Amino acid sequence: MRILAAMSGGVDSAVATARAVEAGHDVVGVHLALSRAGGTLRAGSRGCCTIEDAMDARRAADALGIPFYVWDFSERFREDVIDDFIAEYRAGRTPNPCMRCNEKIKFAALLERALELGFDAVCTGHYATLVEGEGGLELHRASDAAKDQSYVLGVLTAEQLAHTYFPLGDTPSKELVRAEAEQRGLTVARKPDSHDICFIPDGDTRGWLADKVGAEKGEIVDRAGDVVGSHDGAHAFTVGQRRGLQLGVPAADGKPRFVLEVRPVSNTVVVGPKEALACVRIAGARYSWAGAAPTAPAFDCHVQIRAHSDPVPARAWIADDIVTVEPESPFDGVAPGQTAVLYEGTRVLGQFTIDRTESAVPVEA
């Protein structure tokens, strides 16, 4: 196959590319430049899209003896990831920019260009596996549960899966990948993993959002609507947050209160007891299937609402073009804007963006 290897500059993508070359494929490496302004993406070992990363990717490509290019996707990244991130926070939701990047950049914009240029697939260093099932190609969890990235790949469609290549999915551990990189003489063998949001240079998400969205003082209210404190900007709060609340009125029971809801239109933050974070139902209209769609209108599955949370047994159904999920045991602290990924065993069925949540504790309580 002709394979376009997306090389981030990290050890995972370098080893994935090496394996593609070793398997006899015709491989070309590409690094995505996601910012035109220096310093707007995280620098140093914590990054994933920096100048240093581009240089690391080039050195790896040179060591493997493959052609290498840097493609400017900065405009598309700004529109589809950064602008979306800002818009979601403005709407009081909690987005996942890595999910959007996979959906809009790596497996949409990049894959589209790769196919136009005659490549058969895009190769990445994601930890996930592809399995040929009865209904076609399926996306499954990786062998290494600690590194499994199937959650952030849940946005991929059947058409996209048909043109992807994940060489690391069956690798039992990240340490084996690092050891392999050392054996291959790749200089990124011991490079630290990237963390946090790449387009927020100093990691200060609250400050970055204040600059982009604006900070305006507002009220913190309890579930009955009574004012119990104030804030300097609703965008700085997420569902489930306890620290940083400026509460002037203590709870009647003396227990801590948590953020239950962010209302951007009224610039209000709603707080309440921890028990109210328990969520017994979630729903969303923006959904997709990673392969063949479920044939039954209602089905049992496991649902994961964060990249590193445990999947929860649940019942899901589709009605009026909306996916609704009821977990066997309540989710904890779900925020609109998060992504719910549905699994059947190790297989990813699909995903939806959470629009609505229902608390286990009625407002009257």
Automatic annotation (TrEMBL):
EC number(s) reported in the record: 2.8.1.13
**Classification via HAMAP family:** tRNA_thiouridyl_MnmA
Annotated NCBIfam families: PRK00143.1 (NF001138), trmU (TIGR00420)
Q: What InterPro entries does the annotation carry?
A: MnmA-like, MnmA-like_C, MnmA-like_central, MnmA-like_central_sf, Rossmann-like_a/b/a_fold
Q: What is this protein called?
A: tRNA-specific 2-thiouridylase MnmA
CDD domains per the UniProt record, alphabetical = MnmA_TRMU-like
Entry function: Catalyzes the 2-thiolation of uridine at the wobble position (U34) of tRNA, leading to the formation of s(2)U34.
Q: Which domain of life is it from?
A: Bacteria
Q: Which gene encodes it?
A: mnmA
Q: Give UniProt keywords alphabetically.
A: ATP-binding, Cytoplasm, Disulfide bond, Nucleotide-binding, RNA-binding, Transferase, tRNA processing, tRNA-binding
Per the annotation, which location comes first and is thus the protein's main one? cytoplasm
